[in-house]
Amino acid sequence: MKRITTMWVGVALTWAAAVAQPVDMKTTAPAPPPPGDKIAEQAYALHKAGFDKHLEGDFAGALADYDRAVEIDPSDPHLYYNRGLAKARLQDFKGAAQDFSIALEISPKLQQAYYNRAYARAENGDHLGAVADYTQALNVLPYDADALLNRALSKVKLFDYKGAIEDLTKAISIRPDFYQAYYNRGVVKSSTVDYHGAIADYDKAIQLEPRYFPAYMNRAVARLNLSDYQGAIEDCKDVVRLNPSGDHSEAYYYSGIAKVESKDVRGACADFAKAESKGYKKAGVALSEFCQ
Predict the structure, then answer these.
(1) Helix 59-72 vs helix 38-55: angle between axes, to the nearest 10 degrees?
(2) Which of 233, 168, 228 lies closest to 195 in space, CA to CA?
(3) What is the DSSP string of 226-237?
(4) In this structure, what DSSP letter does residue 2 have?
(5) φ, ψ at 142 (rounded to 5°)
(6) Average pLDDT over the chain, rounded to whole?
(7) How far apart are CA 225 and CA 206, in angstroms?
(8) What's the whole-number mean pLDDT along residues 7-22?
């Protein structure tokens, strides 16, 4: 049987990429200026207005205030840091990374800026830069399991699977109930064709978080690659059960593949038809091949 490709499951639970832990998006409250400094008072008022809007979730409004404040006082690292957070919230990761860089130029000890710049760089595709920044953050807080997970994901993008597994293993040792780390380590092991190891990690992720359906989906693919067709079919059923409002096209497709291998062609064709009805192109090919 042709080896099945593992699916990578993303933050929005789409079938795209492994799960990254959220960036620390906490803003830093602006410090009141010295009395009598009119320019600093103007910048502070705008920074404070932006900060308040930021806390209320009005990131565009906050950004507008931060921009005006920066024009008045371009020397405040916390202002650039907060503006970077607002830009990240607005999906402007390139601009966010630039602001975090300026904040660090002004204040190299602003450690949270390394973590947030790492996240922004990763979202912008700069995984070498992200690894460097997560490493800097971990030099200060070596037991930050979230930073270890995120660094592992950037290492995966750089095809450093050994380094990614080391980071995820350390994250698990720090936080034994970290089901996302088990899940992602399973994804990396699948990518290195260690399906038995991957299944063990998916099992642990499911034990810790039984409703985490991406682990069932990827376990199904790993089981297919080990010819455990009934196990794969059951996992695909669980994906549909646990995520009733989801797309399910991949679950039906891989369930169909498992049924073909189990000689249940009628059941396979029914699954392929369901997947094709949702626009899954591979299912149409499978229907043509197995169901004529």
Answers:
(1) 170
(2) 228
(3) TT-HHHHHHHHH
(4) P
(5) -70, -15
(6) 89
(7) 19
(8) 37
Q: What is the pLDDT of residues 54-90, one digit of tens each?
A: 999 999 999 999 999 999 999 999 999 999 999 999 9
Superfamily of domain 21-141: Tetratricopeptide repeat domain (1.25.40.10)
**Number of neighbouring beta carbons within 10 Å of residue 268:** 24
Tell me the pLDDT band of 1, cut-offs 50, 70 and 90: very low
* Confidence at residue 228, expressed as pLDDT on a 0 to 100 scale: 97
Give the integer Cα–Cα distance in Å for 51 and 65: 9
- pTM for the model stands at 0.85
Radius of gyration of the chain from its Cα atoms, rounded to whole angstroms: 23
Task: Give the domain ranges of the chain.
Answer: 21-141
